[in-house]
Write a structure and sequence with these properties.
The complex is a heterodimer of chains A (334) and B (263). Chain A is α/β, with parallel strands linked by helices. Chain A has two domains: 221 residues, Rossmann fold, CATH 3.40.50.300; 70 residues, Alpha-Beta Plaits, CATH 3.30.70.2470. Chain A is built from 13 helices and 14 strands. In chain A, β1 and β2 form a beta hairpin. In chain A, α3 crosses α4 and α5 packs parallel to α6. Chain B has one domain. Helices cover 75% and strands 0% of the residues of chain B. Chain B has twelve helices and no strands. In chain B, α1 packs across α7 and α3 packs antiparallel against α4. Chain B is elongated. The two termini of chain B are 27 Å apart. Classes of the chains: A alpha/beta (334), B mainly alpha (263). At the A-B interface, α2 and α3 of A face α1, α6 and α12 of B. Chain A: Belongs to the ABC transporter superfamily. Drug exporter-1 (DrugE1) (TC 3.A.1.105) family.
């Protein structure tokens, strides 16, 4: 059987020499869920637009469910479901009307499409709101309707482009539960893009980290984190300490490595973070540069991102750094 | 076209149109409210310029008779030249992209817009014609006259709506659409025979008006409304208008491609 998604060397340039994609390649197997993780502007949405036939790449090849995206977009469109960042639901129409129209566009018959709409409304907890205009829905309800719209015709491949962006924590949790259920369906392959580290960690069995238009690392969340040996230890000062005594103090400690001092903040790795903290604090005390605070975090995808993209996720993400991506909980939640 | 009903132009057009008309029926007040403006033109201009028919050579029995087609066509122009704003809404909301990733054809999406604009314009044109008649306008050429007027208003309306949609798809900027409309609406209307008989225009305006599609629509309609209908004029001016409208709808469908390239 062909792969659900096979993309190789995708390149896309926008006017003004903006390189959105720079040779991106991904593969998603049948029934697999791949998380495409990266900051805003990394090229995730451009990838989704190419794979869903909305735009054409400048170079590269892509096939979805065995159909060439460039040569047979008509065939691709019949087998994909797309939940894009923008809702796209008709705000003036009811949830049910939106679903029925969507089914009609895939050639579903009257009785069939009504049955399917009822089924999806029930499944996504929208039965009571079925006859209400979509503009009266809460953000979470709208997003659930968007996912339902993408599933009306029972697609083989589902694209979820930042499905929880803008949702409150409760709505996000319920969306996660829903996506996890979808992932349990063997017949459905899912490409999930997200710029929330914890989301990729939690939902995707395999993660591809995208930076500046290409995949910089790929593997299972645990596998990727496993490549980073040990826990992250962060030390904080009130004022930036002199570098030399700090380095000297820590270089002598066994099991502590990859010391990065950045102003008042220091990051390092230790095989056993909890045991290392007292030793680190004592060594710094002795060296005359006592620290104000120290924290331990299990390796998170943020650390993986730092390692492969060479910068912190929140920095790369710029204005959107205020997202709920907490590196510490990303590792700890599992 | 494929043998399957999925992605066929007819079913696609049907369901996309169904969607548009459902929206119109959910909120019919819009169609009635936008009639306020042509009503004002009809009765204000009708009163204000009442006596221009006395100018030798104007050639109409009453000014109301003369401006009913003018107001109908001007209304069709102003109603439809903002169609691109609705398209902008659909682009920004993500609705257009939602349809573009389904098997529905681009031409079906465009066709649905044409049907909606045609029906909305025809409805408003009929109301204006009936109100004009109630106020004392004559349509001596019989029912064919108003029918041609409605048809001409639909053609000029669809032409401008397609142009506005093309602009929305290519430029994707509300201010450009509004600016261009404000800039074009008055010249399109007043450099035509909407409110003044052609024989009385300064010659340069007459020449500009001759190339103005708004005039083609008016000439076709007035020829049909005459007590001695000039079917030759109806056919030639109507024919050019039809060709232009068809070409512009084609352009709007084609601009989907450019939209997809640049998003």
């Amino acid at each position: 059987m062909a792969h659900a998604i096979e993309a190789a060397g995708l390149t896309k340039k926008y006017p003004g020499d903006v390189r959105a994609l720079d040779g991106l390649s991904i593969t998603v197997g049948q029934g697999e869920i791949l998380g495409l993780l990266g900051p805003n502007g990394a090229g995730k949405s451009t990838t989704v637009k190419i794979l869903t036939t909305l735009i054409r790449p400048d170079a590269g090849t892509a096939a979805v469910a065995g159909h060439d995206v460039l040569r047979r977009p008509d065939r691709v469109r019949r087998v994909i479901g797309v939940v894009s960042q923008k809702s796209g639901a008709d705000p003036e129409a009811s949830g049910r009307d939106n679903l029925v129209l969507q089914g009609r566009l895939y050639g579903m018959g009257g009785a069939q499409v009504r049955r399917r709409a009822a089924e999806l409304l029930a499944r996504f907890g929208l039965e009571d709101a079925a006859a209400r205009k979509v503009k009266t829905y809460s953000g979470g309800m709208q997003r659930r309707l968007d996912v339902a719209l993408g599933l009306v015709h029972r697609p083989e491949v589902l694209f979820l482009d930042e499905p929880t962006t803008g949702l409150d924590p409760e709505a996000r949790a319920s969306m996660w539960a829903e996506i996890a259920r979808l992932a349990g369906d063997d017949a459905l392959a899912i490409l999930l893009t997200t710029h929330y580290l914890d989301e990729a960690d939690r939902l995707a069995r395999r993660v591809a980290i995208v930076d500046r238009g290409r995949v910089v690392a790929e593997g299972t969340p645990d596998g990727l984190k496993g490549e980073l040996r040990g826990d992250a230890v962060h030390v904080q000062w009130q004022e930036a300490p002199p570098e030399a005594p700090v380095r000297e103090a820590l270089d002598r400690l066994p099991g502590v490595r990859e010391v990065v001092l950045d102003g008042t903040r220091l990051s390092t790795r230790a095989d056993d973070g909890a045991a290392a903290v007292p030793a680190v604090l004592a060594a710094l005390d002795q060296a005359g540069v006592p620290a104000a605070a120290a924290t331990v975090a299990r390796p998170s995808l943020d650390d993986v991102y730092l390692r492969y993209a060479g910068r912190r996720f929140a920095q790369a993400d710029g204005a959107d750094a205020a997202g709920p991506a907490e590196p510490a909980t990303a590792g700890g939640a599992r | 076209m494929t043998a399957l009903p999925v992605g066929s132009l007819v079913t696609g057009t049907w369901w996309m149109t169904h969607r548009r008309l459902s929206a119109l029926l959910r909120n019919p007040a819009v169609l009635v409210m936008t009639l306020a403006q042509p009503m004002i033109w009809l009765f204000l201009f009708g009163e204000l310029f009442k006596r221009v028919v006395e100018i030798p050579g104007f050639g109409a029995r009453s000014y109301l008779d003369y401006i009913v087609p003018g107001v109908v066509i001007m209304n069709a122009v102003s109603l439809n030249s903002f169609a691109g704003m609705a398209t902008m809404d659909e682009i920004e909301r993500g609705t257009l992209n939602r349809f573009l990733v389904t098997p529905v054809r681009r031409s079906a999406i465009a066709n649905a817009g044409v049907v909606e604009q045609a029906l909305g314009t025809a409805f408003q044109s009929l109301v204006i014609i009936l109100l004009g008649w109630a106020a004392g306008a004559h349509y001596p050429g019989g029912p064919a006259g108003p029918a041609v007027l409605v048809a001409a208003s639909v053609l000029i309306g669809v032409f401008l709506a397609a142009l506005s949609n093309t602009l929305a798809l290519l430029v994707r900027d509300r201010n450009t659409i509004i600016g261009l409309n404000v800039m074009l609406l008055l010249p399109l209307t007043f450099l035509s025979s909407a409110f003044m008989a052609k024989d009385l225009m300064p010659s340069w305006i007459r020449h500009v008006a001759a190339g103005n599609p708004v005039s083609w629509a008016l000439d076709a309609a007035r020829a049909a409304l005459d007590d001695d209908p000039g079917w030759g004029t109806v056919a030639s001016h109507g024919g050019w208008l039809l060709l232009l409208t068809a070409a512009t709808v084609g352009l709007a469908i084609y601009s989907f491609r450019s939209y997809q390239k640049s998003q």
